[in-house]
Amino acid sequence: MAQTADEQEEVLRLLADPAAYGSAEVRRFDTHAASVFLAGDRALKVKRAVRLPYLDYSTLAKRAEACAAEIEVNRPFAPQLYRGVVAITRERDGSLMIGGQGTPVEWAVEMRRFDETRTLDRLADAGKIDAALADRLARMVATAHARAAVVEAGPWLAALERYVQQDSAVFQANPDLFPPAAVERLGRSSRAALTRVLPLLSVRGERGLVRRGHGDLHLGNVALVDGEPVAFDAIEFAAVIASGDLLYDLAFLIMDLIERGLTAAANIVLNRYLLETRRPEDFDALAALPLFLSLRAAIRAMVTAERAARAAQADRAPIRRAARNYFDLACRLIEPPPPRLVAVGGLSGTGKSALARALAPELPPAPGAVVLRSDVERKARFGGAENERLPAEAYAPPVTAALYSDLAGTARRIVAAGHSAIVDAVYARPHERIAIAAAGAPFRGIFLTADLPTRVARVSGRAADASDADARVARVQEHYDLGEFAEPHWTVLDASGTPEETLARAKAALR
C-alpha cells in the first residue's frame, strides 16, 4: 500500500528531534529522493515516499527493499561506512522509536557519520584536490572495481541508446536553455559514436568488464574518511543504471573534474587507474571515452535542468546555468580533436617524467594524454612494485630493446583508439627515436639536456621514485653517444632550469 509524503512526515520529525538520539545535535539534509539525519556518530538515511520516472519508493515494502539494496551495492566502495538497515517502529503506546520493538513503519539506512565538509566537491571548491589526492582517488576506484560483480552486458548496452534519446527529449523540450541546433548535433554525434563503439563494448562485456559499479561517481559522493577517499551513495534503485563498462563508471568522476576545471587531476585519475588495473584492453576502450564523458555530462545536464524546473523561481537561474554548462561540456567532449603522440627523451636527471606529467593534461582529447613511463613499465615486466629497485639484469640491452618495442606498440594502440600518448624514456639511440616516431599519429619528440652536475643533483635528491638511476648511472650516461639528432620531428631542449621553464619551452616546441 502506498504511503503519502504527509504520512511520512511524522517519521521525519522524529528523526529530526535531538531527543531521539539522547539530545545530540541533529543536522538534516533533503534531496528529491531521500532525507539524511546526522547526529553524533550516526547518519540515518530515509527514502522519501515518492515515485519518479527512474525510481519508486512509494510503499514501505519498496523502501525496505531499497535500503537493503543500498547496503549491498555500497559494500565494494565503502564497507567501513555502511552499518545496516534500522527500523523506525510504532510502539504499543503509539510513540515512534528508532530501532524499537514495535511494528516497523519506516526503514532507514544507518551509516557511520563522516565530516560532511570533507566531500570532494567541497574540497574542489576550496582548491584542495592536489595530485596526491587525485592519485589516491584513482586507486580507490580501481580497488572497488576489482570487487564489483560482473553483470550481463546486454541490458546496459541497450540502455545507452535510451539515455541518448532521453537526454535529447529533455533538451528539445527546453529550447530557451539548450540551442536546438546544438541539441540536434549532440544527438547525431552521440548516436554515431555509439554505433562505432558498440562492437567494442560488446566484446568488453564478454570479457567481464561490464559490472555493477557505483553509477553515481561524482565528487559529491566521495568523502575523505580517515584521510582516504571513500565513495558512498552508490545507486541502488536500478541495477541497469548502476551497471556499465568500468570506464563508463570512471568517466563520471573524470567528467566532474573536467567540468570544474581540474583537468590535471582528471588526467592523473585516468593514468593511475590504467596503471592500477593494467588491462591492455582498456587502451582500446579509450575509443569509447569521448562518448562516456559526453554522456555523463549530458545526463548531468538533463537532471540539472529537471531540478531547475522544480525549484522556486528565485533559485532557478544558477541551476539553469549549471545545466547549460554541462550541456556545453557534453557538446565539446563528443567531438574530440585528433590524437597526438609525444616522446620525451633525455638522460637520467633531465626531468623527463616531470615534463611528461605536466604536458599530459595539455594534450587533447580530454582528460589528456596517457603517459607511458619506461621506468614503471620495466618494473611491471619484472613483477616489481613501482618503487622497488630492480637487479642489474633488468637493464640488460635485450630487455631494454624489448621494453622500447612494447612502449611503441602500446603507444600505437592508444593513438589508434583516438587518444593521445606521451612516452617517457631515455631514447639515447637514433634507432629508438626513429622507431617511436613511426608509432602513429602526428608525432613530436622532445629530448631534454642538462649538464652533469645538475643531473647528478637531481637523481641524488629523488625519493620514492620509479627510476633506479642514481649518481653512478648519471655519470655512466654522460659517455653515451647520442648521435647527431638528424631524425625529423625531434627537438633538443635545455632542461637545466626550473620545471616551469622546461614546460614552457616544450609547449612552444609542440605548437
What does this structure look like?
With 511 residues, this protein is α/β, with parallel strands linked by helices. Helices cover 48% and strands 16% of the residues. The protein has helices at 5-15, 60-74, 120-125, 131-147, 153-172, 180-206, 239-242, 246-259, 263-277, 281-285, 289-310, 316-333, 352-359, 374-381, 397-416, 430-437, 452-460, 471-477, 499-510; strands at residues 26-30, 34-39, 42-47, 51-52, 55-56, 82-90, 96-98, 103-112, 210-212, 222-225, 228-231, 243-245, 341-346, 370-373, 421-424, 443-449, 490-494. The strands form five sheets. It has a six-stranded antiparallel β-sheet with strand order 1-2-3-8-6-7, with helices on both faces. A five-stranded parallel β-sheet has the order 14-15-13-16-17, with helices on both faces. Strands 4-5 form a two-stranded antiparallel sheet. A hairpin with a 2-residue loop joins β10 (222-225) and β11 (228-231). The radius of gyration is 26 Å and the shape is elongated. 43% of the residues are buried. The mean pLDDT is 94.
Describe this structure in a few short sentences:
This protein is of the alpha/beta class and 511 residues long. Helix content is 48%, strand content 16%. The relative contact order is 0.08.
